[in-house]
Every structure is written in C-alpha cells, then in structure tokens.
Amino acid sequence: MHIHKYEKIWLLFGIISLLAFTVTIGVSAFYMGNQPPSCLVTVDPTKLDTTAPFDQPGLKQVGEKDYELVIVASAFNYDVGPEKVIQVPVGSKINFIGTTKDVIHGFEVAGTNANMMLEPGYINTVETTFNKPGKYTIVCNEYCGLGHHLMFATVEVVE
Ligand code: CUA
C-alpha cells in the first residue's frame, strides 16, 4: 500500500498531538495533589447527627502538633465545634474531614493548599500544615445559595 508523503506527515502530527493532549490532561489533573471530584467514602447526609465523627464536629488532637478537624457544612454555616475559631500552635498539621448536610459546598482555607468540595453523601478530606502564625479564614468557594458569602470559620495559628 502506498501512502502519500504529506498524508504520512499529517498522520504523524495527529498522533503526536493526541499523545501530547493525553499526557497534559493526565498530568495536570493530579498536579500539586489535586483530586478528581470523586470521593469514595460515603455517609448518609440525613443521619449526620448520629453518625461518628460528624455527631461531634470540632477539633481533636491526635498527636503532637497533629490534629483532626471534623466539619459539617450546611446552608449557610460550617459546624466546626462549639467555637467558630479553631486554635492550634504554629507548625501544626490539620487533617480536615468534611461533609455536608444539604447542598454542595466548597471548603477552602485561604492562603493554604487546602481546598476541597463537600458533597452530600460523601466524606472528603484534605490535610495541611500551618507553619506561619496568623488567622486563616475558611471560606465556601462553591455558590450554594443566598447566604453563600456568610459561610466561614477561622483557623488561628498561635506561637
Ligand atoms: Cu456554602 Cu457557598
């Protein structure tokens, strides 16, 4: 079979482009610890009040400078325990464990790499270490209704 020279060139160009796109998408999807929006751990969103650990949202110390923060998001609030301000010493690692009672909410700790989506029925986690003292605001970055901009909590990192 005879293939014309230009046809060969374009065929090769096509194959190379396809490979380049595939690699770009495959790499960028996971770049810097990004996760695809698919969570595997499920929970019944109507039974959060009686399901551990979401029946007791809040901060738990699990090691030296090692914490877990259980978050229940709802329109338009983050339940992070009795206090709206979470305090940890500088250098602490917090594993954020979250879910939502109602609609999809965002969860971003401004100024850090902690950023995830909270979807009803699913548990999502993200971990970050706070090496600089200061106040870090937790914000909802997923439009969830009229009170979207009222959703916040604070992580205060102290010396
Ligand atoms: Cu919750 Cu926007």
TrEMBL record:
Domain Cytochrome oxidase subunit II copper A binding: 66-159
Catalytic activity: 4 Fe(II)-[cytochrome c] + O2 + 8 H(+)(in) = 4 Fe(III)-[cytochrome c] + 2 H2O + 4 H(+)(out)
Signal peptide: none
Compartments, record wording: Cell envelope
Function comment: Subunits I and II form the functional core of the enzyme complex. Electrons originating in cytochrome c are transferred via heme a and Cu(A) to the binuclear center formed by heme a3 and Cu(B).
Gene3D superfamilies in the cross-refs: Cupredoxins - blue copper proteins
Keyword Transmembrane helix: yes
Highest taxon, organism lineage: Bacteria
InterPro entries the UniProt entry points to: Ba3_CcO_II_C, CcO_II-like_C, Copper_CuA, Cupredoxin, NosZ/Cyto_c_oxidase_sub2
Molecular function (Gene Ontology), one example: cytochrome-c oxidase activity
Pfam families the record matches: COX2 (PF00116)
Main localization (coarse): other
UniProt name for this protein: Cytochrome aa3 subunit 2
GO CC, alphabetical: cell envelope; membrane
